[in-house]
Amino acid sequence: MKARVHVMLKNGVLDPQGEAVRHALGAIGFDGVEGVRQGKVIELDLAEGTSEETVKEMCEKLLANTVIESYTVELS
Predict the structure, then answer these.
(1) Are 69 and 10 in contact (CB under 8 A)?
(2) Pairing of strands 2-9, 69-75
């Protein structure tokens, strides 16, 4: 079984990497980009029977800084 965790900064938290990407896109001619939020995707190979709750616990304890980041979990 696989899990995919999407981690993004919460709204209102400054995103300097996203701003750097937005600026760089403008510098190479992509003027229509008004904002960029950059996040991360973490893919986990899990033992059969691992629950979504276990993956959420992983996120809460290690994979996401829940003070400034939110996350979503996809199991497949």
Answers:
(1) yes
(2) antiparallel
Secondary element (H or E) of residue 72: strand 69-75
Our measurement of the distance from residue 56's CA atom to the centroid of its chain's CA atoms, rounded to an integer in Å, reads 14
Residues 6+ apart with CB under 8 A from 58: 5, 44
Q: Which residue has the tokens 């199991």?
A: 75
Domains, the chain, with CATH or none: 2-75 (3.30.1280.10)
Q: Is the dihedral of CA 21, 27, 28, 33 positive or negative?
A: positive
Residue 38's identity, in one-letter code, is: Q
Going along 2-59, which residue ranges are E strands? 2-9, 40-45
Instruction: For 24-67, write each residue's pLDDT tens digit.
Output: 999 999 999 999 999 999 999 999 999 999 999 999 999 999 99
pTM of the model: 0.87
